[in-house]
Structures are given as structure tokens and as C-alpha cells.
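hey can u run this one w/ glutamine bound, need the C-alpha cells asap thx
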Amino acid sequence: MVRKYIFVTGGVLSGLGKGVTTASIGLILKSLGLNVTAIKIDPYVNVDAGTMNPYMHGEVYITEDGGEVDLDIGHYERFLGINLYKRNNITTGKIYLRVIERERRGDFLGQTVQIIPHVTDEIKEEIRSVGKDQGADVVLVEIGGTVGDIEGLPFLEAARQMRLEEGVNNTLFIHVVLVPKLTTTGELKTKPAQHSVQELRRIGIQPDVIVARSSEPLTDEARRKLALFTNVPYNAVLSNYDVEYVYEVPIILENQGLSRILIERLDLKVVNSKPQLDTWLEFINNLKHYEKEVKIALVGKYTSLKDSYLSIIEALKHSSAKLRVKTVLKWVEATDIERGIIDVNDLVNDVVGAIILPGFGSRGVEGKLRAIKTLRESGIPTLGICFGLQLMVVEFARNVLGLVNAHTTEVDPNTPHPVVDLLESQEGVIYKGGTMRLGSRPIKLVVGTKAYEIYKSEVVYERHRHRYQINPKYIDLFESEGFIVSGYSDEGFPEIMEYKNSRFYLGTQAHPEFKSRPLAPSPIFTEFIRSLLTQ
Ligand code: GLN
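ok here u go:
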């Protein structure tokens, strides 16, 4: 079959859930028996998402090959159940860097290097080569931002050209728009969507499918209006209304005939004539029909933007569904602990477990350390992730080992007891972009520990993103008090530590959340939640 390209654009405003829509389309195609890959285009000038504050764009997602990518790649991986790579996230920065490098090398000698054709050619080449290298029948390309943004123009132009070059039957344009509801009249308003499609047409793209985001299902009238004014067949105007779980989106789109539209329009040669969604439906059913509720605290410093910890929230859902429980989240802002707005002692009666979230820098650290002390002393099951583990180690050093002013050198470079210190491989690293210890790395587990019991394997691979490590010089001291190392890195520093005197008090240097999938939850998250059920 000739490779097919589906472009997903967005209109009216950002944050509409285009990523989930793209991932949902991917799942439907995959369940028809097709090989699918997905590319996220981010028109910002950063080369990758790694140098951005999670407050701006939400969490930085980590791929197997150590890409620091947009969180939409996480949606794709979770819905498609596959691994993607740094290449699957294309940014303006990456494209321009490459074009300018080629110009300097002399690849374009004699020519004036321009956005069209040089930049657009580079974009098209990269989209095609990702599709080819990943053996995809269908390549989904989500163009971030909103139609009309100046920075998105070269990408939309490249997409327009691809329709011309690949042919109408091999390309499809899906436009995701907001259809707001007026609170005064209760009416669904289609005008912003109409304008956004006009804008798209102005640059030469006529959408084939409209996905309308709204708080409730589109009325027949709104659907007719959208079809008429956007020049899209009535049946190809799909309603993507608010649902409890994003995992329901593929189902609601399919119920409106998505797979039929895709098969017909792209002339797809499918293995299954209808999407096979049984296991997916079972997962949703487990999410919704739980037998028990548990409340846990999430202690961090970016808690006002929940997207900062998106993969952790999703991993908790995957494991919760497997165990048929609902995990209720209590966000605990570390700086609020420091300011006395939150009393850590109150946590003890309020939650049955806690996660110490990943992070960087000194803000909120003392608040987190206070929370950790309370959690450890009261025996509440606690999971520390990356910075979470590092701070569990600092707290233990100070309050159990008596190492006054012990710290991570990330926060206190002059601490007398650097129990967490810069990775050797980081010494002399000056450039901040893409230079952390990133991606999938082996962890050697110690037989007989809880970590070994959880993974049931001597070596496991998890994804990483850090510059600091637990200082191996202190291992004996920690172990003498029961805080043992249950996993080591290849380089020999602790990857997982657990406190023997507690039901579940475990921290990991890795980020197991990035490998959790709806149908294959992370073992660490599952065991953490299981430990909450046995009290
Ligand atoms: N700031 C810590 C480090 O660089 C932890 C990073 C994280 O939590 N991802 O090692």
C-alpha cells in the first residue's frame, strides 16, 4: 500500500486536545491492523522541549532514545502502545538548525536559501523519512499551535505541498476546532470554527474532516451549519465532546463512523474491516467501574498546572484500572508547606499514600523534605520519582543518619554531606540542551528486594532524565539503617532504594511513568497502589 499521511491541524484556540484526537485516530487505524506512526510538529524555535519550563507546555516527555519531547508524544505512545523516538517530534528549531548547517556546509552553494523551498523541503523530507524508517502504512502529523500563527505557516505550507505531491487519496486533512457553548442562551456557536476553516482555506488547505470540541455532543443543527460553512460533508463532521477519561475519545469518534471515513477516503487496505477494540473497552470499563477509592498526595512544585505531571497521572490510571480502584489525587504544593498554608501533619489522616514528584532546583525543597519526614515516620506508603528519590535520601541522611545539613549539590553546592551529587558524566557539561542522562538505561535489581519482587527480573530498562545521582559513598551508611539499595545503574550508583521498615517506601531515579500503558501498566505504580489496599 502507498504510504498515507493524515494532517491534524487546530483552530480557534490551543489546548483543545488535538494530541488526544490524533492519538485516538491512531488507535482506530492500528486496530484496523495498520502500522501507524505519529509525528508532533511544534512550531516554536526551541530545538526540543527539554529547555522549557513545564509551566509553559506541560511535562517534558522522554522517549526510549532519550528525546526530550512534547507531551503529545506521550499520548501517542499510550494510545498506540508503541515506542516513538526523538525524531517523532519536529520543531522549528530542529528544522532551521539543519537547514543552516547545510547552508554552512555549502550544500546550497550559489542559491538564495529561503523558507520556500528550502525550509519546506526539509520539513517534507523529514516527515517522509520518519514514515519510511518506521515502516508506517499511515503517518499521522499533528501540527501544534493554531491556524493563523505566523510560526506555523511553513509547516502548513509543507502539508499543502504534500497533498499535491502525494495525491488526494494519500493525504487527509483533519481540522480540530472549538465549538463553545454560550452560557446565556445554551447555544453551541460555530462561528469561530467557520473563521478558522476560512483561515485554513486562505493558505490553500480545505479540511476533509472536522472534529468539533465542545462541552456536550453537537446538536444536529450545529453539525449541519458546520458542514455547510466549512464545506465538509455532514458525516465527516465529528463531535468530540467532553468525557470523563481521554481514553473514551477513540470510541466516541468511532461511533460516529471515523474508521469508515478513513478507509473510504484514503482507500486503506485494512486487515480488520472494523476496529478491534475489545481490550480497550475492557480497560475503560475497569476505569469506570472500580471497587474501591484511595486518596493519595502528590507532592511537587508545579502543581497548579496538572499537565506538568501528565504521565504520572496517566500511569496511576492504568494501574488503578488494573486493580479496579479509583485513585483520588490531592495536590500538595511544596511551597505552601514552607509558607505554613499546608500542615504536613494533616496529610496523615487525609491520604493513604503519597508520591514525591520529580523536579529541579531549590524552590519548594524544604517543604518537600518536611512532607517526606512525616510520611516516612507515619509509615504511609510513599513512592519517590527521580528528584523524589533524591530528596528521600536527603531527608533520611539528615533525620536518621544525623548528617546535619546533608543535601543534594544541586541545591547546596557547599553541603558538608553531598548525599546526592552531580553525575560524573556531567562534569564539564556546559550546554544545557539535551545533555542530561536521558532515555532508556538498564537497572540491575538486587535479588530478594521489593524492587526485584515488583519487576521479577534481574535487569529492567526504564527511562531517565537527570544530572544528579545518589552518592555511592554513603550506601553503607544508609543500608546500616535499613534504607537499602535495590537497583543499581551500569555506572554503579543507586537507581532504586527502599526502606525495609515500611510497607512501601521506595524511590526510583528513573521515570517509570513514561513506559506505563493502558493495557500494560507500570509494575512500580501497580505495586504502589496495591500497597494502599492492604491496610
Ligand atoms: N533535578 C534532579 C536531577 O537533575 C532530578 C531530575 C528529575 O526529577 N527528573 O538529577
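The chain is about 35% helix and 20% strand. anyway lmk if its weird
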